[in-house]
Amino acid sequence: MSGQGVHIESARVGGAHEGLHARVLVLNRAYAAIRVVDARRAFCLLAREVAEIIDVQDGQYLNFDFASWREIAELRELFPREEYDWVRTVNLEIPVPRIIRLLGYDRLPRQEVRLNRRNLFARDRNTCQYCGGHFATSELSIDHVIPRIMGGEDSWTNLVCACIRCNAKKGGRTPEQAGMRLIRKPVRPKRNPLISLRAGDRRYRSWRAFLDDAYWSVELR
Fold first, then answer.
1. Which spans in the chain are helix H?
2. Which of 96, 101, 141, 205 meets the CB 3.0–4.6 Å disulfide criterion with 27?
């Protein structure tokens, strides 16, 4: 990526996190959360001067344009390395901002969470809703609480994560018929569960102030 004379290449800092693939929360001009993008896309928006950086420090919102962010990046002690992802430019390392704000965009996202496998796994936190075990995505399936052959629908309130063993045990029966019990009632999430999971990460805690009242459906991109 290039812009304002800056050429950014990926840098691996802090384990498996790769700087340009870090996630950045995007706000509209009214400070409402509208989407999540990767750092590469965020830096492109900043370089085009259509966005600014919002940095949350001790409950205060600080606004930076790309040039001023680059300048303070030289003062590395201001950025705890364990709380930021970093990318390397020709001349310096620069921290990936956690939040950017579009300067000329007022629209709001659709207020509906998409029903898909990824969001279902995130809502249930990769936990089998029958035995309570935590599994890799490859070891989980999606179960119809009320089976399709009994008129069960593809809906948030009728679909749950189930491990392969529990799904096979339940078969084409209801939980009651199979002598099984759901560990929690399936519900429609009010906001994207993938975003909620990421906001629980210490490095993304600055997102929380902008998500508390947000009900939105944008996918992680």
1. 39-47, 66-73, 117-123, 164-170, 175-178, 193-199, 208-211
2. 101
pTM of the predicted structure, to 2 decimals:
0.56
CA-CA distance, 207 to 55, in Å (whole number)? 10
**What is the rounded distance in angstroms from the CA atom of residue 87 to the CA atom of residue 79?**
13
Residues 9, 122: Cα–Cα separation, whole Å: 31
pLDDT in tens, the chain (221 residues): 444 445 554 443 343 346 788 889 999 998 888 888 899 999 999 999 999 999 887 778 889 999 999 888 877 666 766 677 888 877 778 889 999 999 998 776 665 678 889 889 988 989 999 999 999 999 999 999 999 999 999 999 999 999 999 999 999 999 999 999 999 999 988 766 556 555 556 667 777 777 654 433 444 33
- The residues that bridge with 8 in the sheet, in sequence order, are 89
Q: Tokens at residue 221, please?
A: 């991109």
- The whole-angstrom separation of Cα 24 and Cα 109 is 16
On whether the CB atoms of residues 206 and 56 are closer than 8 A, the answer is yes
